[in-house]
Amino acid sequence: MYAQMVESGQAGTSDQDKAFQDKIDRNVRIEPRDWMPEGYRKTLIRQISQHAHSEIVGQLPEGNWITRAPSLQRKAILLAKVQDEAGHGLYLYCAAETLGVSRDELTEQLLSGKAKYSSIFNYPTLTWADVGMIGWLVDGAAIMNQVPLQRCSYGPYSRAMIRVCKEESFHQRQGFDIVRALVEGTEDQKAMAQDALNRWWWPAIMMFGPPDADSTHSEQSMKWGIKLNSNDELRQKFVDQTVPQAEWLGLTLPDPDLKWNEDRQSYDFGTPDWDEFFNVIKGNGICNRERLDARNKAWDDGAWFREGLMAHAEKTTKQNIAAE
Ligand SMILES: [Fe+2]
Ligand SMILES: [Fe+2]
């Protein structure tokens, strides 16, 4: 079936293209069996799989603190949160599979270092406060990106986003609550929170991607309804939402250019270090190698289990055939 779809995709006539765009303009969801241009399929496979990889790799910085969470309650909450991220990854791999790519292919691209994932996860989690910052800022930025995608044109992706966003808002609250507990604690704990904020603020701001002027693929993706807001638009929304929260917590955002702009009714803010951003994307972040090594080790360690499952599936299939 997939081969057929790909074939028909390549043979797209201008009528097909027009009918497809018309559907998107009328807000009709595109479903796996519908005709779609090859570029749409490829862009979506890239976008959904990068998202899935980010969820999977995103477990690692926080997983680092599960055994060292400061109380049983915090440990239980963090475990549930990290398990949610695994679920998001699997859910999204399934959405990508409806476009004719296999989960094994996508896993192979991640493990070989060919595929990209969000560069935020290549930063280390040095203290418990970092776990709070990830929830508050990183999940907060993720929600900002993902809420509009609930209305994206591809049915399986938009439906996945509805569920994912519900869980992400729990993640953000648990992060904010970790930071709240720290700022209400001792001077040392408050200082730990401030130090973590200083390290996570700019990487979080960069999660929205390069400035609109330098962002490739954006225009076509917007026309296709798989990108609904520009990078700069979402970044501004995130800053406007987060500044009052930081003020409430009594923490200082590490940006001397940050100030309220009465005319725009928005905050002005400084420019992130985009050289650092592109350097981390290229594989030179603090933890790029560690993250890929961890995923490869998990894959290799699980080989016996996958083999066992396959052997069991084969055996039961044979038994079922014999019984018929
Ligand atoms: Fe997630
Ligand atoms: Fe999350």
UniProtKB/TrEMBL annotation:
Residues 1-21 are annotated as: Disordered. One of its GO terms (biological process) is phenylacetate catabolic process. Pfam families: PaaA_PaaC. This is Ring-1,2-phenylacetyl-CoA epoxidase subunit PaaA. One of its GO terms (molecular function) is phenylacetyl-CoA 1,2-epoxidase activity. GO terms for cellular component: cytosol. It comes from Pseudooceanicola nitratireducens. It comes from the Bacteria. SUPFAM superfamilies: Ferritin-like (SSF47240). InterPro entries: Aromatic_CoA_ox/epox, Ferritin-like, Ferritin-like_SF, PaaA, PaaA_PaaC.
